[in-house]
Amino acid sequence: MSRGGPHGDGGTAGPGSAGPVTTGRERRDARGWQDSVREYVRDLRGGVRDGERGPLLVIAGLIVIWIVFQALDDKFLSPRNLSNLSVDIVGTGLVAVGIVFVLLIREIDLSVGSVSGLAGAAFAVLNVNHGVPEWLAVIVAVAAGTAVGAFHGFFHAWFGVPAFVVTLAGLLIWNGLTLYLLGASGTINIDEVGLVASLTSRHFANDLAAYAVAALGTGGYFLAARRRRSRHRATGMPYRPGGEIWLRTGLLAVVAFAGAHTLNRFQGLPLALLIFLVVLVVSDYLLRRTRYGRRVYALGGGVEAARRAGIGVERVRIAMFMVSGTLAAFGGLFVASGLTSASPTTARAAGSGMLLINAIAAAVIGGTSLFGGRGSPWSVLLGVVVIQSIASGMGLLGVQDAVQFMITGGVLLAAVAADALSRRAQARRGRP
């Protein structure tokens, strides 16, 4: 985003001149594509130099990861593997979106893995063991996640128990309840052609479906960016030049339509990916376009300042933990769908420690700060693709789980260190 305001860089008409005043920004808009591209590149380079983490470094890292794994195994970038990758990211990605809501208020939720496992177990027990219709079992399972989040938020907001302690206790409690529900066998298989199983097995085979989503996403971004530009320009706030918006839209279109083409070369658009994208759009709208979202960011900026501004800190905290619990339960159903079973003992299943670690890593790698007040649901998309790409590549190469755990931990540590260094660099420049 350009740093100058619409009236901040001169352009005042001389005495006696006729016609409207032309600002520096308007002159820059008139110069067109070439200058917009140069300014965009300068902003990106300046952000990296100043310690600001953005999508640029994550995308660069993702490209390197893909090149390395493709060189080691030429099946990595095949349509089949990339389509499977687009489904595999959804369970962890949904849990990570919930983590973002909690991180934005400077808190943490360590129970999301256990909550997701509990949701999968609750669905399986109700549907398989007691014959409850799938749609009703899904509602009960997701509602259980919401209730668990409210429980955590209540103890944290009203009793002052640190979120780390509350959710750590929750991790043990809900994991124990999951084991109790599943019984001695520890595993309940779900209907392989049922509602939940179709969440990860269903694909839209018609090529138009994937291309329509790509076109809708690209067009939606362009219209939203133009509207935001017009609104900022009218109020005297900094705004992006028109050329930069066209450039960003063009890059997004290339990625979106290339992805649609790749998916269509296998089985088409996965239902799971479509649901994940819808959740990202809705979550981003709630956080960035509503008054409640602004309260969340304000609370992440400082509790006392938010309280003085009239924000109900306790209510916001409870709501964020409820969102986290709801999305953890929703993500747990997708994990159970992929496994066609509910089991907390599987290394990659809901309820395992790896789901928690991967969800936090996805949020932080994507750019959400552990220190609160910075991040967005869309950051999860890049982060979870990085995490799952590493897992997919090492799976193709037959790398044992022990090595995968160490590599994932190293990536998470690097992301957190980058976040800390970014805040330190901003503090030196006197920025919050």
Task: Give an overview in words.
The protein has about 425 residues and is mainly alpha-helical. Helix content is about 75%, strand content about 0%. It is built from 17 helices and four strands. The strands form two sheets. Strands 1-4 form a two-stranded antiparallel sheet. Strands 2-3 form a two-stranded antiparallel ribbon. Helix 5 crosses helix 14 and helix 6 runs antiparallel to helix 7 (about 165-180). The longest helix is centred in the middle third of the chain and has 29 residues, at about 205-235. The protein is globular and about 65 Å long. About 40% of the residues are buried. Mean pLDDT is about 85; it is low at about 1-30, about 45-50 and about 345-350.
